[in-house]
DNA sequence: CGCTAATCGAGACGGTACGTCCAGTCTTAAC
DNA sequence: GTTAAGACTGGACGTACCGTCTCGATTAGCG
């Protein structure tokens, strides 16, 4: 009923789809997001341009698909040793290491650009990658709350944001280095709050 | 140092500089960052393209200059009524309103894109706009700390990041609405921390 | 052979080719060769610049193609009334009129410029336009030679050059007016030679 | 009285004039006419652009000045041994050698381009360089005429054109090689004419 | 198992913007 | 008042991609 007859997904070439995703990831790693071109992806993938335009609306969408291809597990779950601070610190330290790896940075940063430009990609990336990540933290905090380790009035979702966002901003803006010390203090201060405690 | 002989800044036309900055801001508001073109800016400003290329390395840099032109006050200071929570909430509520204004969003969002792409712009924007903003919060928190309102072990800089970053992320990713309720709870939870308090 | 993969000529748009040639001729007539621009041709023809660059190496080459498009007959033949002088004079008088027509001058003069600059164009124009023209004269002279009207030792090719070149030079340099009297005397003197004849 | 106050020629820097002419000749030899730029000449001559624009209307005019600077003798005179054919052949052979010298070709060819484009340059070059050259030939032919060696009805000016123009055209169009044999036959045929002579 | 319609690789097309080069004008400071 | 220097507006250069469009040549699913 659309004026453009929709393509028949059952006939879609998985071979091409795969090649396009791989080419997109490879190229974005080599040249950065804004030098990533549809023509470049098509050439690298040995594919006609139309095959990309047929199935994706923008290069951001290709990148999102390519990125979520391998990471569709949904974000997973945080460990629960019974000590919230320890668990959060451990996971954040691992994440710090991941984000300091140049090979990982390029496509991830590219996706951020795509996202800020394009609210479709923004929605997709948020729901497929970011939300599950935040939820994993919130779940772990909620578990601690149920165990009495966390104030019942606290909002676990908000708490997750307060821990993850400073991390994300630092990485995104390269304003300050991402270190284990930083994430450790982040957890400590989120737990302790600013108000003085009576000994 | 530079292999291209640097232009003589003393002969620079302030008239053109002004016109370029205004055109850049106007256009980015009308069309968004990725449709912002050097040619467009030049045409709007009634200026030769070369005059832009002579003085700025990229459209991101132009935008940064244009943006910081009117906002060079350094971030200012937060009010101090003696009650930290009240002051933070008041300022954040105002900021929420500002960031929900579409007229303000476009250039600011554009700068974010420019920043993620270009580490030069990133450094400039961080040091000229973001750092002073964060410092204003940190200063207010430090003042509260000296007044005994905040735990002496807390880190005011980190506290400022924990309050501002969730705000920035929400705005950037459009993941959840920016409301006064959100920022109020943000302040409360930052102050209280997660750990339960003995009444 | 070529390092740039050659375009596929079978898929070439004849519509565009035609429009480009017409636009080039029209523009060169309106503005002259050095104000003729590829951009101008493309705009006038309603064509992308790349379509010109894909098929022609320079604006001179476009002009050559445009010019030879309508004149591919090969130069034709001169009339043969049995009297060489009469025939040569008649044809030259017609050519004088043609070259004094401003509408004809512009593209022809433009081609001369293109030619002097660019030896490719030079070769093309010479072989497609000038050689056939000269040959037509040489053929007529050879016919006269075979009829005993011309000295058997004379070189018809050279004779053609001696008649046509002074004509071309005068036109090219605008040094002296092109008149019927001039070409008449040219023919007479070429036939008679300089040496006195015992009558 | 002109709206642009004419520059005061008495204050003109001969130093600059000299440098500009030398730079123009050097550059045209290195890069060809159409890559010759006013900026390039100014830079090479260590001169401001305005100094060129003040004194010359176009790059063709500069080139013409530069070229005629060293050749202001007026064309000179042809030798007169009493045998016209011998004298003409000798001079033409020398000219052939000159025009086959690449170092001489470039600026001369450049001037031709300038000329075809620009009727001012055309007039200047014709009157300062070409006319005197042609006149020298015409004078020698006229002398022969007075000596009875040439038909009294022949036109020496036209005869000079008939000898020099084929030469010029061949060189200009690179259509055929310039050789001694060619110019020798040119002279012979111009003298003999086409019509058969009774032995 | 062959038919037929959609997808495929390829790439020409009309366009837009790029970043560079130069034209020709104007301004400044040195002489 | 001319000069060297060079910033200015303007515009064409030749290149790179955009997104659309046509081409055969596969290639899948249905008959």
Automatic annotation (TrEMBL), chains A, B, C, D:
Residues 14-74 form the HTH tetR-type domain. One of its GO terms (molecular function) is transcription cis-regulatory region binding. Signal peptide: none annotated. Keywords: DNA-binding, Transcription, Transcription regulation. Gene3D superfamilies: Homeodomain-like, Tetracycline Repressor, domain 2. It comes from the Bacteria. Residues 37-56 bind DNA. InterPro entries: Homeodomain-like_sf, HTH-type_TetR-like_transc_reg, HTH_TetR, Tet_transcr_reg_TetR-rel_C_sf, TetR_C. This is TetR family transcriptional regulator. It comes from Streptomyces mashuensis.
């Amino acid at each position: 009923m659309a004026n453009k007859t929709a393509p028949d997904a059952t006939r879609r070439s998985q071979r091409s789809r795969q090649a396009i995703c791989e080419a997109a990831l490879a190229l974005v790693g080599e040249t950065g997001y804004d030098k990533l071109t549809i023509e470049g992806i098509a050439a690298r993938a040995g594919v006609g341009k139309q095959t990309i335009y047929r199935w994706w609306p923008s290069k951001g969408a290709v990148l999102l698909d390519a990125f979520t291809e391998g990471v569709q597990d949904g974000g997973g779950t945080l460990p629960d040793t019974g000590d919230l601070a320890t668990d959060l610190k451990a996971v954040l330290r691992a994440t710090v290491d991941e984000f300091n790896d140049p090979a990982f940075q390029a496509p991830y940063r590219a996706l951020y650009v795509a996202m800020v430009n394009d609210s479709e990609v923004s929605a997709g990336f948020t729901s497929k990658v970011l939300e599950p990540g935040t939820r994993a933290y919130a779940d772990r905090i909620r578990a601690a709350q149920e165990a009495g380790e966390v104030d019942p009035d606290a909002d676990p979702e908000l708490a997750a944001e307060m821990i993850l966002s400073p991390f994300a901003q630092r990485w995104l803006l390269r304003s300050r280095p991402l270190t284990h010390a930083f994430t450790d203090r982040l957890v400590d201060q989120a737990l302790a709050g600013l108000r003085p405690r009576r000994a």
